[in-house]
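Page 47, continued from p. 46.
Same chain as before, 390 aa.
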Amino acid sequence: MANSHPRRLKIAVLHRNFTITGGGAEHYAVAMVEALARDHDFHVFAQKIEHRLPGVRYTQIAHWFEKPRFLNQLLYAVCTAWYTRRGFDIVHSHENTWRGNVQTVHVIPLSHQLFAGKSMAKKALKCLSILTSPRLLTYWLLEKFRFWPTADRHVVAVSEPLNALMVNALRCPPDRVVTIAPGVELPDALDASARQTARMQARDVLGIAPPAKVLLWVGNDAQKKGLPTALAALSSLPEDVVLVVAGAANPRGVWQQLVTPALKHRVLDVGVVKNMAQLYTACDVLVHPTLEDTFGMVVLEAMAHSLPVVVSGATYCGIAASLSDGQNALILQNPKDSQELAAKIEHVLSPVVDQAMSQQARTWAQSQSWEAMAKLQNQLYLKIATKAAK
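Result:
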């Protein structure tokens, strides 16, 4: 990637967990540094470092407390503010810290969760709860200082709906909020024959009979990511349709009670999987009836593997704002409606629809590579640095 700036920038990256296995936010932070390390000098400040890149410096911040977590977050913010007080052109924070002229937001802000849609009386009660809770007060104050408008501060939202929320609900200056979505590593493209062979091999490893139609659900929070809806939809689908459940899927005891004797042989619980590519290859459709996702990384990854997706609308899942219903994805109006989900699954399992949507999913994912997203991030870095140099 060419660097149009006359010098390499010194960039501090703040993320408590610098690892590609921790989740979407962690993967995002690592991938951005990896893609831009050729152009700039990065220094990562993290409490957990599991991914080291050539040419990147690291400082491990002590992890004093597992609990209370808010106190650990506060101490991390204090330490990183001290370490980055001088010597950097850019401080890029992925955390709830006041330091950072680039603040990337991966989750819905606490203040919006507490106050959005509440009556004046309920807002007053929420204010009282903040003032009487050291945990809430700490997180709320950190967030206030994090998004406090300054001359050089920019906010990065990982989806267009989150961008709109930051501007309309959090009152961030519109010209200081940009959208830079997560990217994806694109697997090698396979022709129909090679893809079918790979699918059969992947299914053989999982013990799935070849004739089955295989749905994939992935998540760590079973309730929030809509696993109960997926199970309810499965019960109304033909017997040859099975559901693979991947991820921590907590609390397991709750959703496993929904697996009736009639469904037991049709639900395959594989837990946390390191080789997700094998799962995407083995399955026919990703079902993601999530109730809350600022982006929806698993959707993008599935599409990159040419997997058709059925996903909640943009109100619930940020990536849906960039997708076209009926073309590169099927969009759910109501992620709690199991009948709507079942109908869309049956539609996409049609051979003609499956093939067309697989191709369009892959085509769209190709425009969302990490290299493309890192280019946008680099443009923001250079914009801030150029303005500061004037």
